[in-house]
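Bug: token stream looks shifted between consecutive jobs. Job 1:
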Amino acid sequence: MRKRFKRKIGAMEIELAILKHFQYIESVAAFLEGSGPEPELIASEDSAVAEWLAEHPDQAITDQQTKLYKTLADAVAAKKAGDEAKAGDLLDQAYLLYSQIERALFANEERREAEE
């Protein structure tokens, strides 16, 4: 019973981190589309996923995470510079990175569960 409960907590932590990731990306998307304020840019190491990764290190996910946050910052910079096309392309890349990170996080958790 305790092991099953721990697995549920682990999965919920990942889901919460992923949700926060998505909300951040959506705030950037709203800005790029002109329907939201300029988001406060955060460093990848200050994100909810980074908090999870601090307890469950995975260099591949960390690298993708760093790339995602740089891509989002570049998209905001492109929008501010008036390059809407580049901003849109970068946002598309960010969504792809988000999807890859999400899959990797769940795969990581499944591996951890199997090892317990």
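Job 2, same session, no restart:
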Amino acid sequence: MTSRNHVDTELQHDWQRFVSQITAPANLAIRITPATLWIALEDLLMEWRALWRSEWFAAVKDQLINSKWTLKDLMAHVASWAAELRAQAEILAGGTGVGYQILFDEIGGPRSWNAEKVEMRRSRLLEEVIGEIERETVRFQDLLFDVDIPRLLTEHPIGIAPTAAPGQPWIRSIAGLVEMRCIHERHHLNRIIEWKRAKLGGDL
């Protein structure tokens, strides 16, 4: 049986790989336009919808998918960040940086913030949590066409900073926030698929 220490080590390595992705410079090899960003969010939403429509998904919503969260909790976590990144993008669209910070621990990220936001959504039905992700995707997509391309690409301090250096926030553009959201959610989407195959077998 896998020891708790071994599991914790694996989670730490997984977290470090994830953070290295979202802190890496944006890949601007393709031409960034409102349409390309809209498509990126739409493709992500379609991947979620395929998962949500799976026969097994709702049936296991209350099963633990990691050491602390059920599948529904994880969806609440995804919803909280969908809302947060859209809100921060709205601030950047106004031409300024974000004036607050969500502090990221070196291991585990913004644990207290994550826990608070999941707890806020815990009493909601799974369908309500999924509905929030859907709505926040549409709101972010709409925002992309409300600003010009230079503003989409202009970088500002965002509301995320290392706990060890709260005065050094991450620097991102609206396009960068779209990329962050896609990386974050695909990380969790892939982990759900891996969990399903390990626990229930088969494909989606």
